[in-house]
Amino acid sequence: MEPLHLIPRVTRAAAGSSPAGAEKRYCIWTIGCQMNEAESSKVEAMLSQVGYRRTETEDEADVIVLNSCVVRQAAEDKVVGKIGSLARVKRLKPDVRIALTGCMVTGQETKLRERFPYVDLFFEPSDFDRLVEIVPELAEADADLAELPHYYEPVSTNPGVAAFVPIIYGCNFLCSYCIVPYRRGKEISRPFDEIVAEVERLALQGVREVTLLGQTVNAYGHDLPDGRDLADLLTAVDAVPGIERLRFLTSHPKYFSDKLIETIAVLPSVCEHVNLPVQAGDDEVLRRMRRTYTADHYRDRIEKIRSTIPGVTVSTDIIVGFPGETDEQFDNTMRLLEEIEFDKVHVAMYSPRPGTLSARWEDDIPHAVKHARHTRVEKLMERVSAAHYAAMVGETREILVDGFAKGRWRGRTRGNQLVFFDASGDWLGQMVEVRITTASTWYLLGEPVSVLAIA
Ligand code: SF4
């Protein structure tokens, strides 16, 4: 699936606490892609602006916001389970206000209202103004809430270093398996100058790495009158003082132009990592997926990327077991994977999403076959990833330290490889040169060599 990366997760941990009952509190639960995470951050920014504090405990909250995803059945099931669990909270505390947003809501408000009558507000993605219906304080806010960035740490003592910034909403493609265009609508690019201004504010907050987001992020600007595109936007954001690293997600192979590739190659802050979902390596499967390109077009784009951007890493997304996918067609996908040797592959077994074109077709690949194909892709990728990582041992790489987990500092290289290192002191937000000492299949261990000055 390409609608960004489906990374079910709960949003960041509470940034602070306050005496029980002293002030109003909100609880926010997010599942789905980085776009959802960015939109939840916007909700957090709005609520924080009018004095609400974050809690992780639903029973303590005055406002609970759920941000949903329906791209896969498993995600939708989790959302339904979460909403169901809130019936108890509402029974015990009738004043709590509950809101549901995200892809589950679009076009479904009437049905959802009948199904979950204890939910106070359903609002479509990005329709933040409607929050005022359950948070009346927003109507009296001094600040222009529309100006708030999509990223915000309310009371953190450790300012965040990486932020997501949505730049284009919706998708004009109609891939036959994908629900996103029906739930997020047609592409709408945010104004160019508004995005640059948001990144400038983030840089002043201490953010060092920005990821520009869109379901088809490289379609950015198609609907703007002045012809400026993603390459132009990258150029403008690269010039923002303090932004050391720039990434973008998720791209469509059809729009991965030479201009974009050449721009990535020359801009210092744009990281040498490209995520370009291919979904299948067989032209007939691609045709039925309605992906609008061939496997050879995809190969051509990867070749151009690799020959133009030194040291670039490339990741992709694959769906196995699409309706009608024969053994030979799957073998074509395996051939493409073996040939390109991606740095990372996100692989998913096909499951029909009601409301899409492919859901009207027979889901005719048995689960055992889908599972076996999934395993073949994973085994191949384990081998490729382990070899890529082993080749890095002894090299020195720049990482941006973005967290501390299981007793170790953690960061990513410009190529998006995960690196851990042991060290005392506070390294959060530092740009560090690390010598790679050990490679495993999916991550690296290293030792810090020097701390790089940040502009
Ligand atoms: Fe991506 Fe296709 Fe879905 Fe658009 S319709 S979000 S291009 S998978």
SSE series: EHEEHEHEEHEHEHEHEHHEHEHEEEEE
Question: Helical content, roughly?
Answer: 25-40%
Structural class: alpha/beta
Mean pLDDT: 89
Mass-distribution shape: globular
Strand content: 15-25%
Q: Could you give the order of strands across the largest sheet?
A: 2-1-3-4-5
Give a quick account of the main beta sheet: strands, pairing sense, barrel closure: 5 strands, parallel
Ligand species? iron/sulfur cluster
In DSSP terms, counting alpha (H) and pi (I) runs of 4 or more, how many helices? 11
What does this structure look like?
With 455 residues, the chain is of the alpha/beta class. Helices cover 31% and strands 22% of the residues. Helix 7 packs parallel to helix 9 and helix 10 runs parallel beside helix 11. The protein is globular and about 60 Å long. 42% of the residues are buried. Bound molecules: iron/sulfur cluster. The site of iron/sulfur cluster (SF4) has 12 residues, from helix 4.
Summarize the structure in short.
This protein is α/β, with parallel strands linked by helices. Helix content is 31%, strand content 22%. The model is unreliable at 1-21 and 152-159 (pLDDT under 50).
Helix-strand blueprint:
Blueprint: E1 25-30, H1 34-49, E2 53-54, E3 63-68, H2 73-92, E4 97-102, H3 109-115, E5 121-122, E6 162-169, H4 180-184, E7 188-189, H5 192-205, E8 209-214, H6 230-238, E9 245-249, H7 258-266, E10 273-275, H8 283-289, H9 295-308, E11 313-320, H10 327-340, E12 344-349, H11 367-390, E13 396-405, E14 408-413, E15 418-421, E16 431-439, E17 444-452
Parallel strand pairs: 1-2, 1-3, 3-4, 4-5, 6-8, 8-9, 10-11, 11-12, 15-17
Antiparallel strand pairs: 6-7, 13-14, 13-16, 14-15, 16-17
Helix pairs in contact: 6-7, 7-9, 10-11
The structure holds iron/sulfur cluster.
